Amino acid sequence: MVNVSIITIGDELLIGQVIDTNSAWMAQELNKAGIRVKRRVAVGDVWDEIWKALDEEAVNADVILITGGLGPTADDITKPLLCKYFGGTLVTDSAALENVRYLFESIFKRPLTDRNIKQGEVPDVCTVIQNKRGTAPGMLFRKEGKVFVSMPGVPHEMQGMMTNDVIPLLITEFSPGQISHRTLLTFGIGESMLADMIQEFEETLPANIKLAYLPNSGMVRLRLTASGPDAVETEKLIDTKFAQLQELVKEFIVTNTDEPMEKVLGKLLLQKNKTLATAESCTGGYIAHLMTVMPGSSAFYNGSIVTYSNETKSSLLGVPPEVLTTEGAVSEPVVLQMVKAVLKTMDTDYGLAVSGIMGPDGGSEAKPVGTVWIAVGNVEKQIAQQFNFRFDRQRNIHFTAINALNMMRKFVLDDEGQ
């Protein structure tokens, strides 16, 4: 099996100014192609550190993929470093220069400077990978049986090279075999309890199948990964084991595909030809955001009314001021009125409402930070439930949203008699 190391270059990655999405995307795409990523390394714009990373990863991997440091400014040192590392001389690649010229003159409508022209230079010991989405060409080197590929750090440009050039080359050259994943999502059971429940199953898995526990936000993903030289046999084996796993944890399964809670609910609503609207207080529109990032969500999501203040709860959702005074905004009667109102106002099949205390302030002895009421329902029936989270503000908001979506999912299933 071919092993790959990914090196991402840039001071901005190390200080947290920019999140490294490149290596995550690359790892996902390589994995789909049956290519194993063994290590991911981030280094700053420091000559010695980059050189050292190249030496170390050449020991660990067959293929070293590099992103970043190919721009036209002084801190972009990757290209001259690679030129020296592989013993080459910088020369102008006519196709790369023509690409730069075309972009500046025809697309950017800006004059071509000497700094831009230098982006057409490459080491004479590399194979050039033309950049169809930007100015900096990619470069492929070979040394002592190892393959090195340097690509721009701009995600869109790197992704084009990986998809069109790099991954096809690696598949052809290394015949990596098959890697297959199966993932299910559970809710309402902790990681340790799941481990106890499926201990015997896990202990008897064949050597080429691994089980991973991926807990997050009160949910636990269980992922099986199988590898093997024969695609048909690998798929057959993992399907058999995945069926066994689903049977063992069926009581807690949300979905047997690798997708988030909001997508599970969206697909369910679409399947039933039903619509949802939300009334949000403490989450401030976060649930609406989760629903609307999905393409085509207008087919099942009507919208949200965000009523953060007591005044808007009364004026927009008809919550009686005296109820807000006597019961408080975070209470069962308030969220029930909110869900009834959003059902009517949005003319939707299902409604969801949340109100809570996210913190760090605002809690009391009776209602500490993390207290949340969630209501879901349709015009015939509404139900409410209290939750008590004990996290920071952002996690309280996220946990509220995920639990609300799951509560809505279960209501829809029960409503359909499933």
Descriptive key words:
globular, Alpha-Beta Plaits, 17 strands, 6-stranded mixed beta sheet, 3 domains, 5-stranded mixed beta sheet, alpha/beta, 418 residues
Question: Could you give the topology of this structure?
Answer:
Elements lengths: L2 E7 L1 H4 L7 H11 L3 E8 L3 H14 L2 E5 L10 H8 L4 E3 L1 H15 L5 H4 L3 E3 L3 E3 L8 E6 L2 E6 L3 H20 L3 E10 L3 H7 L1 H5 L5 E8 L2 E10 L2 H18 L4 E3 L5 H12 L3 E5 L5 H7 L8 E6 L3 H8 L3 H6 L5 H15 L3 E7 L14 E7 L4 E7 L4 H23 L3
Parallel strand pairs: 1-2, 1-3, 3-8, 13-14, 13-15
Antiparallel strand pairs: 4-5, 6-7, 7-8, 9-11, 9-12, 10-11, 15-16, 16-17
Helix pairs in contact: 2-7, 11-16
What does the model show?
By secondary structure, this protein is of the alpha/beta class. The protein has three domains: 3-174, MoaB/Mog-like domain (Molybdenum Cofactor Biosythetic Enzyme, Chain A), CATH 3.40.980; 178-255, Alpha-Beta Plaits, CATH 3.30.70; 261-415, Maf protein (Alpha-Beta Complex), CATH 3.90.950.20. 42% of the residues lie in helices and 25% in strands. The chain has helices at 11-14, 22-32, 47-60, 78-85, 94-108, 114-117, 155-174, 191-197, 199-203, 231-248, 261-272, 286-292, 310-317, 321-326, 332-346, 393-415; strands at 3-9, 36-43, 63-67, 90-92, 121-123, 127-129, 138-143, 146-151, 178-187, 209-216, 219-228, 253-255, 276-280, 301-306, 350-356, 371-377, 382-388. The chain has a six-stranded mixed sheet with strand order 2-1-3-8-7-6, with helices on both faces. The radius of gyration is 27 Å and the shape is globular.
